[in-house]
Design brief:
This protein is of the alpha/beta class. The protein has helices at about 40-60, 85-100, 100-105, 115-120, 135-145, 180, 185-200, 210-220, 220-230, 310-315, 320-325, 330-335, 340-360, 385-390, 405-415, 420-430; strands at about 1-10, 10-20, 25-30, 70-75, 105-110, 110, 135, 150-155, 160-165, 170-175, 375-380, 400. Helix 2 (about 85-100) runs antiparallel to helix 4 (about 115-120), helix 5 (about 135-145) crosses helix 15 and helix 8 (about 210-220) packs across helix 9. The two termini are about 20 Å apart.
């Protein structure tokens, strides 16, 4: 028996083909697949990850002749309001993967993968009769790591939301309202505030911040990139706050992460030590009048770079909201040494705890204490680092869900009446 689980987030898509005992047969990844906030063709992103994972399963020596029996996708934005739109997106993605020449004729056991995916992408996507099961990204994150069926989830990644569960079913939720109306404390929320702080710095309308040269380097503003390179040479690798624990096995760890243009994916400062604030000051001597104030309780800030704020407007304006989340890591990495970054992270932590408190009935007030059942943290912003420490201080003993895709595989298994070995699959994917 082969199971397919897919985690569709705003920043990335992860697909895993596995067996119920937790053996990994294939995996795939692609750019984000959120219908509203991700750049590019969301259906193509999902189809690409599915195609790669099932292609690996078809070529695997450990599939033991098993057929693709169940598919589950946990999709950001698949709540009640946009469920029909997301369901249509999933059907299109599965049909696209099924019709691909490299997969359509592939077989698992005695069945065509193309036929299996065509069947999966029909009907109500309720998991019955071989159809795919569509859940939210919250549902699979909770199911991937929760010790039991009753509890609460706090997710902070590209978006932010909290939910409660009983018998694995979602009973209530707070926030997850999207970047325009909510998602307070999320990567998009925090990343946008990083950009605003840097814009104010460049515009001489706000305090200077050590985040500025790193933001400018990420968007490849040439003059800033040269200055940032001189002021902040690449330090030795250090522990980073990993926003996505499933690293691409095909990625080149020595590849220059700075994009040649904004058509390429932005680098992730959480995974790239180039954007660490722990670096020597710039050699050039700035005008003291421009740096008489400081926003850092740590080392002296670097001189303000001679870049016009309008240049930042020009390069940031085309970015999709999900891309703003890439800048959140700069604040997380600088929080201990830069007062502006530290304040932003503190505000994000307070917002997340307030959301968790609200979904658990408000018991304990804004610190998020109170309520019953297990609490699961999920999302890249809560993987480790200062934001995780901020919310964990109020909830000792909580568990983190590093691989929500495991929850998608578990839900696929449940749809056909079997139980997935979550621990074995998690260990195999780490």
């Amino acid at each position: 028996m082969v199971l397919l689980g897919v985690d569709v987030g705003g920043t990335s898509v992860r697909a895993v083909a596995c067996t119920p005992d937790g053996r990994v047969l294939g995996r795939g990844s692609s750019r984000g697949g959120n219908l509203r906030s991700s750049p590019g063709d969301a259906a193509a992103s999902i189809a690409g990850a599915v195609r790669t994972a099932l292609g690996g399963a078809a070529a695997s020596d450990t599939a033991d002749g098993g057929r693709l029996e169940a598919v589950c996708l946990g999709v950001a934005g698949a709540g009640r309001v946009r469920h029909a739109d997301v369901a249509d997106l999933v059907r299109r993605a599965l049909r696209s993967a099924a019709g691909d020449a490299t997969l359509g004729d592939a077989r698992l056991g005695d069945a065509s993968l193309g036929d299996a995916l065509q069947a999966a992408g029909t009907g109500d996507l309720d998991g019955a009769d071989g159809r795919a099961r569509l859940l939210t990204d919250l549902d699979i994150a909770y199911r991937s790591a929760a010790p039991g069926p009753d509890g609460a989830l706090l997710l902070a990644g590209t978006g932010a939301v909290a939910a409660t569960y009983r018998d694995w079913r979602q009973t209530s939720r707070r926030d997850g309202l999207g970047w325009l109306l909510g998602d307070t404390g999320s990567g998009v929320w925090l990343g946008r505030r990083v950009l605003r702080a840097v814009a104010a710095d460049l515009d001489r309308n706000g305090p200077p911040t050590a985040m500025t040269p790193h933001v400018l380097a990420m968007v490849s503003l040439t003059s800033a990139r040269t200055a940032a390179s001189a002021a902040y040479p690449r330090p030795e690798p250090r522990d980073a706050i990993a926003p996505d624990p499933v690293a691409d096995p095909h990625a080149d760890p020595h590849e220059d992460p700075l994009p040649a243009s904004l058509d390429e994916p932005l680098p992730d400062p959480l995974e790239d030590s180039r954007f660490s604030p722990d670096a020597p000051e710039q050699a050039d001597t700035p005008d003291p009048a421009e740096n008489s104030s400081t926003a850092s309780s740590g080392p002296e800030l670097p001189p303000r770079l001679d870049v016009d704020a309008q240049d930042l407007v020009r390069v940031v304006d085309p970015l999709a909201p999900a891309d703003w989340a890439r800048f959140a890591g700069i604040a997380l990495n600088a929080a201990k040494t830069d007062a502006v970054a530290g304040r932003l992270v503190e505000e994000a932590g307070g917002a997340l705890l307030a959301t968790l408190a609200a979904v658990r009935g408000g018991v304990g007030g804004a610190d998020g204490r109170g309520g019953g059942g297990d609490i699961v943290f999920a999302g890249g912003l809560l993987a480790s680092g200062p934001l995780r420490a901020r919310v964990e201080a109020a909830h000792r003993g909580c568990v983190f869900a590093p691989l929500p895709v495991v929850g998608a595989c578990a839900a696929a298994a449940q749809a056909v009446g079997v139980e997935l070995d979550r621990e074995a699959l998690t260990d195999a994917l780490m």
